[in-house]
Design goal:
It is built from 5 helices and 15 strands. It is α+β, with helices and mostly antiparallel strands. Strand 2 and strand 3 form a beta hairpin.
Amino acid sequence: MTHVEIEPNILYFGTPVVLVSTADADGNPNLAPISSAFWLGWRGVIGVGASSQTVRNLRRTGECVLNLPSAHQADAVDRLARTTGTTPVPESKLRRGYRYEPDKFSLAGLTPVPSSTVAPPRVAECPVAMETVVEAIHPIAADDEDQCGNILCFEVRVRKVHVHPEIRLPGTTDRIDPDRWRPLIMSFQEFYGLGGKLRRSELAQIPEHLYRSPDVDRARRELDVRPAEPYGRTPSMTPMA
């Protein structure tokens, strides 16, 4: 099948939704939905906007809980859409229709429960909750002065994993049953399970062009000036730091 060239404003091809719980300087919890996350072993990487309250809390405490909602919690997650714990609301979020919300647990109808090894609470209703500590902070697009500092990646180390008994593989103490675990998936701003689309997403009402990265135009400019490579030859690559 032949490919066609396109320039998507976002590249959210489908990842699990994570509710990141953190605590502010007074111990008040914040809860933020994200979908930029992956795990390798007991390490995780999450991408968060630098102006968020989550980043402020993570920088100060170095702790968070990664709560994974199931497909059944789409309504609760959507109630958190376009809310922020940061006041005043950053300009970039104002343009996308965000508002300040100091009590996100109540707004979402979710229950905070004490964690075992970190200060931020877990979400009782989420089938998976991972208590983590920050091991490293990596800037995104550090090579571009127009983007540097806007998004940060946090490498976190998992200290404790909590799961609902019903998703544990029967007869085991250390395995998740993939037939019982049904994560909530975000794909191009819409909610999905491991089947069809679940419902309308409030976040999807934000026009995609508001997420457009300068890297789209940068890639085009670089292709315009780069000498054509002979077919079959691999261009040289600069190793990543």
